[in-house]
User: Fold these one by one.
Assistant:
Number 1:
Amino acid sequence: MSTFFSQLASVRWQDILDILVVSYFLFRLYVLFRDTYVLRVISGIGFLWVFQHMAAYLGLIVTTWAMQGIIAFLAIIIIIVFRNEIRNVLQAKDIGAILWGFSHKAFFASEEIISSSMFALAQKKIGALLVLPAKDDLHEVAQGGISWQGVISKEMILSIFWPDNPAHDGAAIIRGERIAEVGAILPLSRSTNLPSSYGTRHRAALGLSEKTDALIIIVSEETGHVMVAKNGEIKKVNDRLELQKILQEHSGVSIDDQGVRQGEVFKLGFAAAVLLIFVTGIWYSFSRGLETLVSLDVPIVYQNRDSEMELLGSSLNTVNVQLSGAGALIRSIKPEQIKVRVNLDKAVAGINSFSITQENISLPPGVILKKVEPQVVDVSLDIPIKKKLPIQIDWIGRLADHLILESASVDPERVSVVGGSKILEHISTIYTEKVQLENITKSGRRSVKLVLNPASLKARRSSNRQITITYVVKSRGKMAEK
């Protein structure tokens, strides 16, 4: 659980944008293909995809391979079998209808225009057959139609079914806000128990309703009655308001007093929430499943040191951090993006131990700290003071047996040293670098360097770290003569 929350805490703005883009893309697929067989098949593919990843997680090699093949096959099947539905969606003239519009339902025409037109034809006893598709595609059922693509209006509907119009005997098909086709031939019903008063229009309407979920409106030229056929049933409509209500129910929405469509808002909101949760889950599984580890040596930065104190030394200069995250993100990390900071604001003179934890390490968003080694650093702090100390030559080795070192002196004899008070407290002499006695054969002078130990000690700038040694060497024989 802690890993989950740490993962959420490290979410980048790119991750949020990624989730929103994919969620909106899937939401648009739902909006465009909802209540169709296309969406059902896509949902099935999504379920198989989840099942495939579960199989891969469990190590089921053959099952994973089989699921991959089935998913690829079904993706091709969608394109072949549902090409008409896909074509209808992609043929939208307004790109907004695809990207952000919600007017994709099969029925968009004004219910009032259609109902008033049908009863106007009934009053004149002019026969009519009007088809309003729903989810099912009619291209394979209704044939012989003439492309019309006229905007729906009462005048347009009356003119199509006027007896002098050559296409008045066929059916008019409404798609979207337009009358898409006229003169279409519908399949006749094969039912044998229909009333004898039903003519060809009634049988055609009933036949189409038996094969699809379309709503068909019939106007009888013999009786002047308006009837509707749907789901293999046919019934009489008494007035315009009743027909208008039927049209509203067919559209899948209801209308309140303000004319706002209800029912769809909840369904769309629920679908959007489910898709957002689903994509977030996929993102989380990917961010963990594609986890990559990397180890980096990062220098330690010491901060907030007391100005009166000096950092004399530390047990560590760098720490090794082990990081994890998405492969592409981990590969793009540079060492300078990782900061290890140790806060010295509460440090005291002497040796201080600090633990290196998640709080001390700054990481780029989306990167998780898995391990840090070592986890403790010792820091030595002290108040700097100045102390003047004598200089001592660090002789090593021995002179030749016939020689003796009579005297030696250094210039200068003392040097001012700056360092921590606790260190200088125990230092009484500063030594030069080592001088080999074996290399001395006669009196002379040479320049040597001071050795400041520990390294935190510093000679004042006014003091020369180059020391001049003057030494006098004599033969043991001459000393005996004296």
Number 2:
Amino acid sequence: MSETSDIFLEKSAVKTADLEHRRKINFNIGKYNAVVPQGKQQFENLDLAREKAKNIKWKALETLDHQLEEFEKQFSKRGGKVIWAENSQQAIDEILNICQQKNCKTLVKSKSMVTEEIHLNKALEENGIESIETDLGEYIQQLDGEAPYHIVTPAMHKSKEDVAKLFSEKLGTPSNLTPEELTLVARNILRKKYVQAEIGVTGANFIISDIGGIAITENEGNARLSCSFPNTHIVIVGIEKVIPSINDLALFWPLLSTYGTGQQMTVYNTIVTGPRQANETDGPKEMYVILLDNNRTNILKNPKQRESLYCIRCGACLNACPVYKNIGGHSYGATYSGPIGSVITPHLQGMSAFKHLSYASSLCGNCTEVCSVKINIHELLLENRHESVDEGNADITERFAWKAWKIASTHRKLMNLGNSRIKNKFVNKLFSDWNKNRGELQFSEKTFNQLWKERHKK
């Protein structure tokens, strides 16, 4: 097993036994489950809406080169600058170059999983630039020195008491503050940072090809402040986020809000098409959009796995996954956790290092059932397992086990050999690792072949 696999198993074992962690997660996901059905009522035909969204993403990904070039053309017309980054290092180098040009000392940053993917905060800190997370959940995680726990709700694993204690330790506030009071403390700190910052960094929920704009969805208004107060606005976004037309937002915005948080519409929905124009009174003087590949084209060229790029990061599959609800987001050891993370991470960060994530699934299919754009997630997890074996990532024990099973299952005499007690003892001793986190394998008293012969012996 790889080092990442060992760490995953260790963290999973700890979290699975942590009943307090499970209580918090079940409480927060329970609140999500209570409101999502209400959000779904806005759709006359929800299944059709999801199918249409999937088809739009199919079109966008099948014509990705055209869509991105059209975006660049339209965005550049309004004075925006597009930067193409092949990997994390190129993206970081471009951002640091811009920071140097602007003599940036303070940078405000709205919630963005892509910036987590490239470890932007660490790079900025190493270069003497203060990077402040302005989303409340991300700000809490930054104070605690932790990565986001969830795609949509970064601090889902923390209770209000946990946050109050954290603020008391880090900011010197009383330890008995209410959630409203804690929010005001964070707001007072962050509002000053918006004014001080030379650069604002955001992600994008969608890249809109036909108008050359980016769409941002949020509930706190921090992204709007991050992209309008500083003189320079940098957007970092994965190339798969493209949609062909601004008209598509009429479908994608309600789907994202319903499946993400149970709302009919998120509070703030913003379209940004470039820097401040001559007839405008606010907005940044300069705006950059960094289009990040970072191995996404590896997924794009895979005919079966390409479907995973349709994901709009609503987080519904995480909330539905029995594995995620037991082991938590940090156990995955990757930026993207849960079912969709288990699909894409082996392709983004290497199959040999992260193939184990594709096996961290019960294959119950609940992730596919709740996906807002109808991605066949559980089938893609199976495809990952198949590809990992084809690439030679199966260890000796695994190869031996399947070879032995193939020989036995294709030879009836071997299947009928011995009684169930002997078979149980032999198999469970031979594959002892299997039983560390599972019940023992139990063979039936008689094989199907034997039962069939007894029933039809006449």
Number 3:
Amino acid sequence: MQDMGNNSKNIPGSIPLTDLPMGWRQYRIVTVASLGQMIGTIVATIAGVIIPLLNILMHPELSPFMQGLIGSIDLIGICIGASIFGRLSDKYGYLLFFRLCPALILAASVAGVFLGDVWGVTLCLFVIGLGIGGEYSLDSDYVSELMPKGYGPLMVGVTKTASALGNIIAAALCLWIIMDTRRAEVWPQLLWIVAGTAALMLILRIKFYQSPSWLQSHGEDAKAEKAVKEFLGPRATLPATTRQAATSSTPQKENMWQFMVRNGKQVILSGIPWACEGLGVYGIGVFLPILVMALGLEHFTKGMPEVLHVAESVKVTLWISCIMLPGFILGLILIRRKVRITLIQSAGFWLCAVSLVILALSYHFGWNKWWSIGSFMAFELFLNMGPHLITYVLPPRIYPVETRGQGVGLAASIGKIGAVVGVFLIPILLKAGGALLVLIVSAAVMAAGAIVTDIYGALVSKEENVRI
């Protein structure tokens, strides 16, 4: 049999992967990668429901510190996992960790169900976060390298859009479980949602292959050609570009600090706005049911059982979450129309800040609650149109393939550090100054994200001579 790896360039009708039309094989890659994004928001949404359920069961209620710890422990795991798995994947290849991460999430979520106590589940959420961190450092890499020309940023954005589905699916399933059982004691069973998603991820990745770009950058041209064909069909071949081997100008024994110094502007541009976005996606997102109650947006009848009070707040959370998907779609349309991604991110941040200011005014002056709900939905729309989408699309655009895993992983780690701070901050702010203080601080953070994007987006574009 002919060696397809060594002779692929001579096969009649061979087409570089960048010139292939979008087909089911590319959409399969996007779908498999998208589940990693979806499970991240599933876990965050479930954590946000677990906290008020525990407040019903525990006397006294959970302290702000414990609420912050439960809400952020998976994010702490993500920070560590993204950095570790990103660096290891650059060294040992993407495929091993692309399978290991969902296996880790599956094992930890099943363990959490059976442990069923606060500290045991908290530990399991941390391990789940390690696996999700690996997902964040790998999903965009696979998608960005295997799409046709002009589709890379768009399909990376589509991958991120699955996180909106994660919010919606998790909120809907949590609401169904609570309404079906009407018992706060059901809270550990919510982790079955995570376990089911992780099991699906693992099954779909059994028939998956090593990253062709990673193989090529390590001098494995024949294996890279074979991997392209396994992904995209027998006619697919690598584009005729100059191979950048791992022995190129990138330092071989560069530690994380050296990497950050050498890529300072890129690290700031990809990391700091992601950290600011993290407060909105995770800080506000995790505590959305509690904020809904604090703002008085849910329907509450005097004498209603507390568990149904939580269910009503989750119902409003579900409606607010539904606007996330149109936000992502709007952002994808802008990417498709070649609007600069830093402009989309900056505009999204500024519009988020304005929406939160209107929400704060509505709450402070007691306007009709539909002003508040509309402002909250506008915030989620613009957050997902801009920062939530673009902070994921941007890092693969500004790092070369030989350090892309490390660069994307570092950006995700910085982003999740911001998310951890946000999750810890929200209950403290709620106790110190109520919902109004939460909204004012959040608006200021959104404005800061816009300013950093504007300044460093221009600097990186000028330095790299690219349009981002």
Number 4:
Amino acid sequence: MKEQAAIFKAKSTIKAADKEHRRKINFNIGKYNAVVPQGKQQFMDVALARERAKNIKWKAIETLDKQLENFEAAITKRGAKVIWAEDAQQVLSAIKKICEEKNCKTLVKSKSMVTEEIHLNDFLEKHGIESVETDLGEYIQQLDGEPPYHIVTPAMHKSKEDVAKLFAEKLGTDPRATPEQLTLTARKVLREKYVQAEVGVTGANFIIADIGGIAVTENEGNARLSCSFPKTHIVVAGIEKVIPSITDLGLFWPLLATFGTGQRVTVYNTILTGPKQPNETDGPDNMYVILLDNGRTNILKDSKQRESLYCIRCGACLNACPVYKNIGGHAYAATYSGPIGSVITPHLKDLGEWKHLSYASSLCGNCTEVCAVKINLHELLLENRQEAVEEGNSPFAERIAWKMWKQGMLRRRWMNIAGSKTKNWVVNTLVKGWAIHRGKMVFPKKSFNQMWQEKYGNR
């Protein structure tokens, strides 16, 4: 149970000391912080908009079974096929079967965190199918052999010089190429892949229950090409992405754009309701929608943690988190990083193995403050900690230490008897875990009681 925690501590220790990494990520987050206030100006009352969005997601999650059944019935009528998958293996098996039926050699894929969750690219490569990321940031990460660094901006930790060097190594471009030249190079490579691909894969920003639609929002147009050029389109979506009605998009699209990138609305917003119809000239001949559980019902059955399923993956909590801004996305070693990742990963995977992520927080509450749908993230992190202790996923020494601390804090006389030297020794020497990753704690020479008495007497 200590393996993932050890990996996290090792990676975060290295990244926290990497000043160049910190400079890059803070530069990019600074650009985000500069534009978000402008995007919020489109709302007459942004707090009310967030509250309404939370209420809509509450309704969707509380009636999730019915919403998903409505979606399936509506999109099936238009010729799409819906596949229900309990875990990652079922999704991968379904996609493999579809690819074999379509004699797929090349697959194009738009940005999708849920396909990162199931490690789709690695799976397809092992089975001789070329899977090409078509989002520019994801394409950069794929070239470099790295997973996404951020939910919304996958290559946030790379400078333009880093990308130029990478393209020079992998694609033979000029190492001094400008961002415009690099983008044109990527466009040339990827457009050839759209034509070659037999299958296109996208995620879903929202599953629209009443019309049986998949809503996709993007800034590059690559998702539209991925789902329209190939003859077969596969959607992979987590079951929590559902919203009740198409009218809800009037609220959710601007919220996602503003809190995700600071835009009023993203450049391309698409609603997909099935494969090409008899009277239509464009679109895929076949459309499959795979609805993935993969631990989401574990969260659903937990009345307190259920709120985390409201997340619309805007990434605002990552950009606000002081921990994320110091250690970056890869240190988490999980698909979903930052505060929302620290909340949901222990439930999507294993609480005992991943509980350490819920301690990777200052509990400052800034994640809750910026959440587009007002999820109480810092409170859910505390809930995770409590659940881990209740389930016995805490070391014996840790439990004893906290019991001793509790007894001391409940008895002021005990605290006063121990002088500052004794307290310093206990925390910095006896409690070994404190000083390993932190500076030494120095207690004041006088206790609060002593200072109070000196100033006010016994009153």
